[in-house]
Q: What sequence folds into this?
């Protein structure tokens, strides 16, 4: 097998590691490409290609994460990961860990860790790498990595997100939620929302968003109902689909261009959080991106009474 073939076989794993470390499809793809360039230029054939490439991708991602964290401190409004519609890496033996770790709630929790803690946690808890492999990847001793893992696990356990365990129940509840949204059913929506439900938008200063979010079942239900009619009137289409492993939807304008992505957190038969990614810089990988501000002006005009 050629180096290029070996690399392509491992590309899904490398992307999945990098995405969980960076929370960005763009940066993860760049990290994977840089990994290939380094592998291609290396005169040494590693004993384990998987361990070698995973280590290179991890080190690159750690460096990118350190600078990204500084940029995120100046980010306008709430910061959410770039929506991931499909995780390319599959491992039946670790399917639960992979699914839970890619949710927006889990990725936001990972943001609280240092870059090294995050890398050690992702490699050990999500992908099942051994501590000798992790130590080689992050350039620390095995003992230091074990300490990093303990600290990271403690932080993650303290705030671990809780979701509806049964995927079928989640999808059924999400279907009812989106049906009520399409029908403008305030009562139906209110029943499907937790008392302290929130809608929070990430526009990054480049798209309209809910300033400070909307909180409470009554408020959220009425905001959703007020949104749907004008959106429908100007031809906005909603495609229900998984976003970061959780029920969600993609919104497109009348030309099919992407305007935003919603991800729902569902627990005990109710929606507890709606995260809306609206920043156009985070949507390019989903498809051609529409003009969110122009759409907002259309929606505002559509809300005005005739005459």
A:
């Amino acid at each position: 097998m050629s180096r290029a073939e070996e690399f392509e076989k491992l590309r899904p794993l490398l992307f999945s590691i990098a995405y969980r470390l960076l929370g960005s499809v763009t940066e993860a793809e760049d990290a994977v490409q840089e990994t290939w360039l380094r592998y291609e230029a290396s005169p040494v054939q590693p004993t384990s290609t998987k361990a070698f490439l995973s280590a290179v991708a991890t080190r690159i991602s750690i460096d990118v994460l350190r600078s990204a964290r500084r940029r995120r401190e100046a980010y306008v409004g709430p910061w959410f990961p770039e929506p991931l519609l499909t995780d390319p890496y599959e491992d039946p033996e670790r399917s639960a860990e992979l699914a839970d770790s890619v949710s927006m709630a889990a990725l936001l929790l990972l943001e609280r860790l240092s870059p090294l803690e995050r890398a050690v946690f992702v490699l050990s808890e999500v992908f099942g790498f051994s501590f000798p492999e992790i130590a080689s990847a992050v350039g620390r001793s095995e003992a230091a990595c074990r300490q990093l893992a303990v600290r990271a696990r403690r932080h993650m356990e303290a705030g671990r997100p809780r979701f509806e365990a049964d995927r079928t129940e989640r999808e059924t509840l999400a279907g009812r939620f989106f049906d009520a949204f399409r029908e403008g059913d305030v009562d139906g929506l209110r029943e499907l929302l937790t008392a302290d439900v929130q809608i929070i938008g990430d526009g990054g200063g480049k798209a309209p968003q809910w300033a400070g979010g909307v909180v409470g079942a009554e408020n959220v239900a009425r905001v959703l109902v007020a949104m749907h009619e004008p959106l429908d009137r100007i031809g906005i289409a909603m495609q229900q689909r998984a976003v970061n492993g959780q029920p969600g939807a993609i919104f497109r304008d009348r030309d099919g261009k992407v305007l935003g992505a919603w991800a729902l957190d569902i627990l005990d038969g109710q929606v507890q959080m709606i995260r809306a990614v609206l920043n156009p810089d985070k949507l390019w990988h989903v498809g051609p991106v529409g003009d969110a501000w122009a759409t907002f002006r259309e929606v505002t005009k559509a809300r005005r009474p005739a005459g």
User: Anything to note?
Assistant: The first helix runs from residue 3 to 22.
